[in-house]
Each structure stands twice: as C-alpha cells, then as structure tokens.
Design goal:
- With 493 residues, the chain is an alpha/beta fold.
- It has two domains: 1-101, Double Stranded RNA Binding Domain (2-Layer Sandwich), CATH 3.30.160; 161-487, TIM Barrel (Alpha-Beta Barrel), CATH 3.20.20.
- Helix content is 43%, strand content 23%.
- It has a nine-stranded mixed β-sheet, with helices on both faces. A four-stranded mixed β-sheet has the order 1-2-3-4, with helices on one face.
C-alpha cells in the first residue's frame, strides 16, 4: 500500500497498523498516481493545543475517510505518545469505515495488550476505567477487554511480590527430536546435529558458572528458573543432571528466594521415567507436556513422530513422578485441524486434570514449513470458533486466564492465553510477558531483558543464535553479563 504523510512522520505507527489490519500489504513510499487501488494519505495539523488527524484510505477499489481530534498536553514525551495514538486511532477508524470489521484487539498492535491494564491499576485506576479505556480508546472488543482485565490484574498482583533486586533466569536448550511444521525457532534437530550437543553443554556450563557468580556478586535474588527450548528433555538424563547441578552450584545463595523451577518436557517422545526422576531430584516444581493437538492426523501433518497414545503414556509418567504443577499446550489453527478436532483435543487435555493449559493461536512464522510448503490451514473463522469454545470450556472446568500475549502473523489476529486453576499460575510466564522484572537468559538464542519498573526502562542483550556459533563465541555471553551487572549498578545509584 502506498503511504503519503502530511505534517508528520509517524512511519512506525502507520506501518504497524498497516501490517495488523491489512495482512500481506507492505508499505510503499512512492507518489500516489491516478488509478492506484491501494493507498492511504495521513495528514496532521496542530491548532491551539489540539492535534487534528485525517486519513483517506483506498483498498481494492473501496474508499473511506476518518477524522480524529486529540488534545496535546504534558511533556514532549507525553505529547509524542498522544500523537502516535491519534494517528493510529484515525487509521483504524478509516479501516473500520472501509471494511466494517473490528478486529478482536482493536487498534492494538503490540505483543502485550494487557500491559495497559496493569499500568492503569498501578496508577490507582479501577478495572472499570481500564475497561473503558480498552473499549473506548483502543476499540478492543468487550470479550477481549474482559480477558485483558483478568490477565492484567494477575500481573499487577504478581508485581507486588517482587523486590528491586529480584530477577528470573532462563536456560535455553535449542534441540528437538524433529522440527515441527509451524516452528521457526532457532532449534536443531538432534538427529541432524547430535555432535553439537556436548560442545553446546560445555559452553552452557561455563556461561551458567559465570552468570551465577555475577548474580551473587551483584546482590540479586533469583525468584524463578525456566528451562525451555527447543525441548530440554531431548537431553539425556545425565545431561539434564549436569545442567541443573551446574545451575545450583553457580547460583548458590541467590536461590534462597527461588519459588519456582519449570522445565519444558514438551515433546512426549522425549519423556522417560529416568529423566523425570532427575528433574524431581533437583526440585523442579513444574513440567510442561505440549501435545499441541490430540488428533493423530494433525500430529502427522505438523511433523510430530508420536501418537496421541504416546501423550497418554507421558502423562502417566508425569503423574507418577508427582510434580506439583503440570502444563499442557494446545495450538488453535494447525494444518488439517477443525473446530471439532480442536474441541476433542481440549476435552482430552481437561481429562488429565492438569492445573495449567495454554491455548496458543497459530502464528505463521517466516521460515516455518507451513509457509515454505504452503500447507493448508484453517481460516480465521474456524480459529475463532476454536478459541470461542476453549474459553467457556476451561472456565467450566475451574480455570481462569492469568497471562496472555500476541505474536505477529497470528491467525485471525487473536492471542495466546495461559489458563490456570487457583494456585497454579507460572510466575515466570507472568514476569516475562508483563515485563515485571529482569530475565537473565543463558544459552544460544538467549534474549536477556533488563527491567527497571520504576523508570519504565527496558534494555535487551542477545546471545549468539546458533549452538555452534554460541559455543565458539563465549565472549559475547560474558559481555552481556557485564552489561547486566552494570545495569543494576546504575539502578543503585
């Protein structure tokens, strides 16, 4: 779509709105010519402390226009935010006039729509005023506004229990038995990269040792550990023992306040009684078993080499091991799935009685086999039907939503939602999705996030992506840890 700006240069806001509302359209900065069928003209002017925005929009022969006026006040930073919101709001209103559609999350384009609720509550506002903001200022549908109110309130309560020196730790194991059709994560299939595992673990152990020393010397407290991937249980039992032993030895007294250790067991074809015994011996509180679907033909379509019966057997092993919390993941919108099949999968997961179920919406990620091979997937209406059955069914079974996030290129522009029974919330999921505290990420592809809630300041550092590169460049991870320590020294001043 050709974009033309007058009186402003809010490119980022308009581009994000374009990608959200018109999937597949890319911004083009060329003069609009007679006969062009896809363009937008966004104009701004200021008059007596007010910003006046107009948007003229044309798409596939249909045209619409919108006007929006907003007061500008406060600091330059605050006025900049007000300007961005006004431009995004006007673009959205033109889109709605053109199409008659209101996407579930309205004009919101970000990953964390419920942060608006958490922020409002921290400023002393009520849930009713937060709802009015979501529905009135951001055009969020009542159903999604209700969802955001619950998860945003959960984050607000979790934030109360965090001190200024509290952090979370993530350890990444970037290996899987095979690569799923929907996946674009930097993970290696062990059948193709078995030789990388031991060098990777050597490098990871060294980074864990250095990270633990840095955390103790900086006076930080680890509130939770999350080991993800990939699939951590792709490792052997001795390898899992090695990683967790290294973590305990390195972080030592910094773990005195650690409330939660979570390991993604993930793929049922990687779960054995021996591995679960190792996790239990190291005090792991929560494991995830992620079937994604319980339909055999859908498992085959996404490249999983296990059956629904394998999931049943894995859950029997997990139950016998006696973990305090168990999570299961499902994905709405997988190739070959239907609303009826998704409902059957959900019913089977509910029958296991786990206290956490996460319902993801398929995200069409670049580099995934779904896109590369053009696999057929359910349409947005079918995905909406899947999600619309999930919420009520989970609520009837005693679950409530406690965290959510969105991703780019999601089917139907929906969301991923974590559901829990009372007392089963995974703190790490809340911390990272609501950006409540710093996350020290160890391992290949690690994304360390340094968070100062008081100043609303967030900085990021990234480890090398690939296992081989990570093992060969240990200096980058150590540099990131130095920056992490310096961030807290700066906070202390």
């Amino acid at each position: 779509m050709k974009l033309e700006f007058h009186g402003h240069d809010e490119r980022y806001t308009v581009e994000q709105s374009l990608l959200n509302l018109f999937p597949g359209e890319l911004p083009v900065y060329e003069p609009i010519a007679p006969g062009d069928e896809s363009w937008a003209v966004i104009s701004c002017r200021e008059e007596e402390g007010r910003l006046l925005v107009t948007v003229d929009l044309r798409h596939h022969g249909e045209a619409a226009a919108a006007f929006h006026a907003a007061a500008l006040s406060g600091t330059d930073y605050e006025r900049e935010g007000q300007r961005r919101h006004a431009v995004g709001s006007c673009f959205f209103q033109a889109y709605r006039a053109l199409t008659g559609n209101t996407p579930p999350w309205g004009m919101l384009t970000g990953v964390r729509p419920d942060k608006l609720v958490t922020q409002a509550l921290s400023e002393g506002k009520t849930l009713d005023s937060a709802r009015a903001m979501l529905e009135g200022e951001y055009f969020v549908t009542p159903e999604r506004a209700s969802l955001a109110l619950e998860t945003g309130a959960a984050a607000y309560e979790a934030a109360k229990g965090l001190g200024s020196r509290d952090i979370a730790v993530y350890i990444g194991i970037p290996f899987c038995p095979t690569r799923c059709a929907y996946c674009s994560f930097v993970s290696q299939s062990v059948e193709k990269s078995f030789a990388l595992v031991e060098p990777y673990l050597d490098a990871l152990a060294a980074e864990i040792e250095a990270g633990g020393r840095m955390v103790r010397e900086t006076g930080l407290n680890v509130r939770c550990l999350y080991m993800g991937g990939g699939t951590p249980t792709t490792l052997t039992a001795p390898q899992l023992d090695r990683v967790l032993t290294a973590f305990e030895a390195a972080f030592g007294s910094a773990l005195d306040s650690c409330e939660e250790i979570t390991v993604e067991a993930g793929r049922p074809d990687t779960i054995t009684a021996e591995k679960l015994a190792v996790l239990k011996a190291h005090g792991v509180h929560r494991v995830s078993v992620n079937p994604q679907t319980m339909e055999a033909h859908v498992l085959e379509a996404i490249g999983r080499r296990h059956s629904p019966g394998d999931i049943d057997r894995a859950m029997e092993l997990v139950a016998a091991a006696g973990f305090r919390h168990v999570n299961m993941d499902l994905i709405a919108g997988l190739p070959e799935d239907t609303p009826e099949g998704f409902r059957r999968s959900l019913d089977r997961c509910l029958a296991f009685g786990t206290d956490n179920i996460t319902v993801h919406t398929l995200a069409l990620k670049k580099g995934s086999r779904i896109l590369l091979e053009g696999l057929a997937i359910p349409g947005p209406e079918a995905v909406a039907e899947m999600l619309d059955c999930a919420g009520p069914a989970l609520r009837r079974a005693g679950y409530g939503p406690y965290y959510l996030y969105r991703q780019k290129y999601m089917s139907g522009s929906f969301e991923n939602t974590g559901w829990t029974r009372p007392g089963g919330a995974c703190l790490y999921n809340i911390y990272i999705m609501s950006e409540l505290c710093s996350i020290l990420s160890l391992g290949a592809g690690g994304s360390t996030k340094m968070v100062d809630p008081t100043r609303r300041l967030i900085r990021r550092r990234f480890n090398p992506k690939y296992p081989k590169e990570y093992a060969e460049r240990p200096g980058k991870a150590l540099e990131n840890q130095r920056d992490f320590a310096a961030f807290y020294e700066e906070m202390g001043r």
